[in-house]
Amino acid sequence: MCRKEVKMDRRIVITGACGQLGRALNQVLKDRTDLTIINTTTREPTAYCPIILDITNSVAVMNLIQELKPEVIINCAAHTGVDLCESDQERAYRINAIGPKNLAVAAEALEAKLIHVSTDYVFDGESEVPYREEDKTNPQSVYGSTKLAGEEFVRTLCENYNIIRTAWLYGEGKNFVKTMLALSEKNNEIRVVNDQYGSPTSALSLARAITFLMDTDGPGIYHGTCEGSATWYEFAVEIFRLAGKEVTVLPITTEEYKTPAKRPKYSVLKNNNLKEAGYTLPFWKDALKEYMEQYNIGGK
Ligand SMILES: NC(=O)c1ccc[n+]([C@@H]2O[C@H](COP(=O)([O-])OP(=O)(O)OC[C@H]3O[C@@H](n4cnc5c(N)ncnc54)[C@H](OP(=O)(O)O)[C@@H]3O)[C@@H](O)[C@H]2O)c1
Fold first, then answer.
1. What are 171-176's contacts with CB under 8 Å, separation 24+?
2. What are the residues facing 40 on neighbouring strands?
3. Model confidence, pTM
4. Mean pLDDT throughout 66-95?
5. Cβ neighbours of residue 160 closer than 8 Å, sequence gap 6 or more
6. Residue in 20, 120, 165, 205 to alter for ligand 1 test, most ligand atoms within 8 A of Cβ
C-alpha cells in the first residue's frame, strides 16, 4: 500500500449516509474542498441525503455508479440489528452480503475504489489475544456470517477495495452510550455484561481512519478500532464517570443476559495493517471523552 497523489474534485459516494458512520464521515469531510460528497439513503430524500439507493438492487446500484462516476464508494450501509438478523436471515443476507456484492461489481466496472465496513463479529471470540487481520474467521451469528459473506464478495469481485473491520461503534444514532444514559434516567442500578471483551470505537475515530484509507492505493483488509479494550461493564462505568452520573453498575455474565444472537466472548482487534501504513486510532477512553464533549454529555 502507498500514499497516492491527491486529485482535486473527487466524487465520493457514501451509502447508508444517515447511519452513525455515514454522519461521522460527513462531519470529518465537511471542509474538504477537493471532494464532492454524495450521500445516499433508502428513505425520503433530504438536502443532506438527496439520493435514494437501496444497495440490494443491483440495477439501481450500477445505474447510479455509472451516472456519478465516483472515485471512491464508502459502504456504511448494513443491517446492524445483531439480534434482529437471527430472525430475518434473508434480509440480513441481502443487505450485508448482496449489497456489498452489487457495490463491488459496480466499483470494478467503473474502476472506483470501494471501502467496505465490516465487523469484529466475523470472529468466534475464542482467542485470548487480539485478532489480526489475517486470523481465521468463524462467525457465530447471522449478522457475523452475512457480514463475512459481504467481505468475500468484495474481496473477490473488486480489485481496488479496502475492508475495514470495526467494533462497538457509537456516534449519532442508536448505540450503547445512549442506551446506558437513557437507562440511568429511570434506574439507580444497571446490570451490564462483564465477560465480553471488545474495543469501544467512536464513529468519528473510525471515519478519520477511513479518510486516511481513501487516499491510499492497494487492496487490503484493515482492523479499525480504538486502542485498548474493555468489557461492556467497564465501558458503562466509564460512560457514567464521564457523564458525572451516580449510578450503580452491577457486573453480570452473558449467561444472565440472554440474547437471540451469540456474541463473541473476546473480539478485540489488533490494528496491525493500519499501524503499518502509518495510522493509529486513539485510545477508547479518549475517543469516548471527545464524543461526550461533542454532545455535551456530563462535564468530566
Ligand atoms: N454499530 C456497531 O456497533 C458496529 C459494530 C461493528 C461494525 N459495524 C459496521 O459499521 C458499519 C456502520 O455501522 P453504523 O452503526 O453506522 O450503522 P447504522 O447506524 O445502523 O446505519 C446503517 C445504515 O444502513 C442503511 N441501510 C440499511 N439497509 C439498506 C439498504 N438496503 N440499502 C442502503 N442502505 C441501507 C440505513 O440507512 P437508511 O435507512 O437511511 O437508508 C442505515 O442508516 C456497518 O457496516 C456495520 O456493520 C457496526
1. 171/20, 171/21, 171/23, 171/24, 171/202, 171/203, 171/204, 171/291, 172/20, 172/23, 172/24, 172/203, 173/19, 173/20, 173/23, 175/20, 176/200, 176/232, 176/235, 176/236
2. 51
3. 0.96
4. 98
5. 107, 108, 111, 112, 113, 114, 219
6. 20
